């Protein structure tokens, strides 16, 4: 037992990168079977796939590892707990071995029926007798930990000579120089382009052009074949979402075949509805990369008027602050109270990949969200995004009021009422008073919003408001999802959950993957409405120069970047409740002309800071006035505020005097 005591005392290593190789681990040498010395390390079992991918992407000798042998105990098998007991045993072998199909090579007796082909296809030159392999054991004593035994880490044959890769001189000029399969990124690119309608011929033409431009093939991806792309296209064309006539059975079959893309699943029962959480490997990577120490936003109940099962989304924001969906949750509206279970499962999945991952804040767009459950799972601040309400008000103003002046007056009173509630001590009555002067808007507002005013007022009073940039990103994502998901001619499919799961996991996922693909412009001729992409309205506004803005009384004229011969009229400039005459604003969205007018007026000092900035300043001043024994918290808050101010200045320019937070405690006290 001394061996196992020594093994279990080793640290569990989990490098912070998305993938890691043997060079990223510290290996220990411990006496093994028959007095052999084993080279081993402990890693989280949930990260075994990350290790396999990282070890395969070895630049010195690119390859792939396949499962050569696997043994596992079934769930029903009874076993006696013991320190050296094994729940699962997996043998990974380099795909260039263990058999050797070269001339004079050794083939195992069980593979003696192999007959060389005249024209090698499928996996040419893949079996060259490589002895590189490692063993993964999942122990009964520590089920969450994987023991990796890596004794044969050199890519050589039984004679000790390099058998593939750049170091093998006999492999020069053959495919054995490269990995046996294309990379995961190229596979996703091919599948995504096929799902959105790009032809096989176009994909191969663009690929061959890029290879010629770089002077010939230099890795396995450059050897992409027409046959492979055609086979993927045929598979997509022949696939069907309806795996069974019964929708519930069809969903369960889909879950069984897509275990890697499901982080939570609860089947329909007498007491509980269907709950299905979908997250692909790419979405998980985006959540780790853009969610760590940043914001995650909750887009709730999309398609509740059309879909049998509304879609809930968690999104992160990339370097350009565009929303990227990192998880989709499908469940009936009345099942929203079970949010804690699937959030906990998602959090555990992310933390298994990166134990240091932590959120800076969680943004909700509904006051009915389970705030306590979110705080308990993610341990972070909660913000509320008002985009959904403002969007609905703006859209109905455009629909129910024909005159621009009337729209502007109502929108102005709406904005003043919301600001009054946010600054406090306001109440829901502040949102009711304005409607007496808006007869055309009265019926809609009373029918839809009167029952919700109390809930929203309490949320706005207790939760900080998300920034306008976040609102613009959420609006843009909502528009993208609507164009890409709800575009079926046969609307009867909206009643099936299996169609929804299939559409999200394939076509919709492909569009969002291509949004992050740098070479998307090469396929611009195939773009449709579903390809809607580009920067958000807030980002577009940063490109508009100040010379394109002209303030005239209670309105502003803003010249856009596309059509510089036309000036768009913005009423209530400086407010996010402004009304613009452009097409994007008429659909209820915040446009770049409104955002530009807001920034222009704030730079001139003619309007007050945004509500989110006001709440931030108020909270900071409260912390600065802590008692002396809490000076450490105060000093940390002051340094954090300076850092935040520097980040804001780097993006939108220095704030004016009325927006700058004075960090002096004396000034903070006097401001109260």
TrEMBL record:
The protein here is known as: SWIM-type domain-containing protein
Q: Which organism is it from?
A: Erythranthe guttata
């Amino acid at each position: 037992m001394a061996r196992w005591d020594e093994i279990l005392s080793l640290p569990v290593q989990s490098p912070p990168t998305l993938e890691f190789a043997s060079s990223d681990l510290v290996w220990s040498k411990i006496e093994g079977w028959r007095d052999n010395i084993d080279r081993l390390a402990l890693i989280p079992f949930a990260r075994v796939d990350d290790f396999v991918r990282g070890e395969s992407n070895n630049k010195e000798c690119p390859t792939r590892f396949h499962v050569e042998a696997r043994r596992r105990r079934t769930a029903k098998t009874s076993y006696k707990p013991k320190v050296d007991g094994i729940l699962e045993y997996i043998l990974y072998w380099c795909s260039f071995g263990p058999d050797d199909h070269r001339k004079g090579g050794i083939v195992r007796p069980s593979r003696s029926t192999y007959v060389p082909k005249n024209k090698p296809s499928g996996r040419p030159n893949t079996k060259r007798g490589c002895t590189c392999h490692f063993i993964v054991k999942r122990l009964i004593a520590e089920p969450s930990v994987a023991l990796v035994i890596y004794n044969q880490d050199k890519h050589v044959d039984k004679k000790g000579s390099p058998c593939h890769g750049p170091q093998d001189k006999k492999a020069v000029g053959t495919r054995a120089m490269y990995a046996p399969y294309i990379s995961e990124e190229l596979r996703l690119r091919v599948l995504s382009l096929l799902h959105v309608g790009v032809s096989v011929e176009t994909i191969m033409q663009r690929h061959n052009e890029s290879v010629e431009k770089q002077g010939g093939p230099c890795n396995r991806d450059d050897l992409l074949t027409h046959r492979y792309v055609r086979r993927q296209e045929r598979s997509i064309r022949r696939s069907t979402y309806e795996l069974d006539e019964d929708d519930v059975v069809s969903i369960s079959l889909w879950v069984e075949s897509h275990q890697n893309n499901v982080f939570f699943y609860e089947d329909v029962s007498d007491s509980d509805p269907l709950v299905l959480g979908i997250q692909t490997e790419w979405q998980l990577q985006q959540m780790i990369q853009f969610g760590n120490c940043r914001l995650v936003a909750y887009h709730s109940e999309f398609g509740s008027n059309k879909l049998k099962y509304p879609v809930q989304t968690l999104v992160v924001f990339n370097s350009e602050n565009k929303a990227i969906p990192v998880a989709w949750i499908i469940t009936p509206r009345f099942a929203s109270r079970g949010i804690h279970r699937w959030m906990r499962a998602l959090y555990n999945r992310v933390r298994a990949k990166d134990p240091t991952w932590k959120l800076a804040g969680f943004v909700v767009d509904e006051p009915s969200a389970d705030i306590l459950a979110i705080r308990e799972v993610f341990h972070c601040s909660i913000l509320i995004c008002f985009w959904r309400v403002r969007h609905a008000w703006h859209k109905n103003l455009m629909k129910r009021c024909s005159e621009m002046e009337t729209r502007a007056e109502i929108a102005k009173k709406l904005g003043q009422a919301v600001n009054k509630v946010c600054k406090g001590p306001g109440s829901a009555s502040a949102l009711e008073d304005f409607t007496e002067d808006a007869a055309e808007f009265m019926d809609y507002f009373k029918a839809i919003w009167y029952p919700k005013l109390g809930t929203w007022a309490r949320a706005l009073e207790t939760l900080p408001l998300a920034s306008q940039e976040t609102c613009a990103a959420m609006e843009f994502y909502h528009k993208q999802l609507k164009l890409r998901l709800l575009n079926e001619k046969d609307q009867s499919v909206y009643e099936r959950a299996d169609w929804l799961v299939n559409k999200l996991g394939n076509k919709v996922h492909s569009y969002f993957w291509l949004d992050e693909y740098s070479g998307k412009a090469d396929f611009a001729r195939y773009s449709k409405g579903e390809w809607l992409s580009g920067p958000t309205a807030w980002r577009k506004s940063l490109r508009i120069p100040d010379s394109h803005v002209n303030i005239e009384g209670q309105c502003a004229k803003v010249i856009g970047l596309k059509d510089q011969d036309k000036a768009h009229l913005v009423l209530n400039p400086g407010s996010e409740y402004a009304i613009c005459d452009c097409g994007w604003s008429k659909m209820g969205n915040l446009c770049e002309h409104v955002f530009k007018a807001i920034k222009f007026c704030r730079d001139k000092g003619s309007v007050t800071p945004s509500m989110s900035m006001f709440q931030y300043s108020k909270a900071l001043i409260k912390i600065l006035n802590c008692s002396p024994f809490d000076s450490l918290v105060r000093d940390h808050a002051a340094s954090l505020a300076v850092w935040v101010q520097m980040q804001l200045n780097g993006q939108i320019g220095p704030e004016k005097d009325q927006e700058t937070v004075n960090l002096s405690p004396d000034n903070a006290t006097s401001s109260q």
